[in-house]
Model the fold of this input.
Amino acid sequence: MYHETDKKLSDESVKSGHELNADGAVERHIDNDPVYSYKEQRAIIHRVDRRLVVTCGLIYCFSLIDRGNLGNASIAGMTDDLNLGIEFRYSIIVLVFFPTYVIFQPPATVASRKFGPRIFLSTICLLWGATEIAFGFVKKWTDMLGLRVLLGILEAGLYPSVVYLLATWYSRFDFPEKADRSWKFLSTEERDFILRRINKDRDDAIPEPFTIKRFLKPALDIKIWILALISL
Done:
């Protein structure tokens, strides 16, 4: 026997186009697949979640560690070794990271779409890892300055790429099409299921042509600027 809250949930689900399956879980229109049952669909999606979310989370953690390394190195003696106590040298080294980090985020978004997050993310992670190693061989504070600028350029691509990857639900043209050839992550049938699901959800599995006008259009949305200010 349903309680009042259960009955209310059931009524709202029906009104919104959702249905309750045999287990009482809410099924949406996109869950009606000709090949896989609801339970099988959830298993595939959870496998994708575990692989993608864990990977992106680890990359982001490494990024945060990189940003905190400067303070740790300063405490360990870098300030004395590179004479950063003179005037505003340390403050300059800290600040030069951010202009390139902000300026290169829009181009990084375009590059991520062009090359695909899988290739783009792997490349910038490898390069900024090499940059971090180079920090250990710095002898002059000006060399540190250049590396900080380069690090800002490379890390600028992380956030846009991860957001793009997740927002398009595992890359409409990079992830689904090549997933069956990437470490046998998904079979061809499972890849096709993901494409069907995306099309049912928003009918955009085929990428639209890139244009500057379409790329800049979100800049007219005030919510974008508010989110940017919050992220600073």
User: Anything to note?
Assistant: The beta strands are 19-20, 26-27. Residues 128 and 154 are 6 Å apart (CA to CA).
